[in-house]
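Supplementary Methods, section 5.1.

A reviewer requested that the exact input to the structure prediction be made available. We therefore reproduce it here, unchanged from the version used in the analyses.
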Amino acid sequence: MSDKESEESWINPEEERGWSQESYRDYMKRRDAEEDAIRKGTYEYEYDNATSKQIGGDHYKNCAIQPIEYIVKNKLDFLEGNVVKYITRHRTKGEGKKDIEKVIHYAELILELHYGKEK
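The structure derived from this sequence is encoded token-by-token as follows.
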């Protein structure tokens, strides 16, 4: 590439790379639609949706309602969320008894921390 060609591609990079410049009006229209979808809770992220993937297994994939969605929509705290998480997966993750013991432990923590110690 000659110096002149290099300089021209630096000055007009969209020509070399096939980029097009979005008009300000189109940009604002697109952003307004995205912000409206975010407010309504219907926005789909362009690159990936974090709730559509699972790291470390597939024990939540076949759930009618993902535990994280239930937890967030019902504004459950950490302890309550863990009860939901472990009870949901106890049959499918392969740690059934251990998961039930965790449910019991988190329920005991809720009793102690939210309702006081038994006397």
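The chain has six helices and no strands. These observations are discussed further in the main text.
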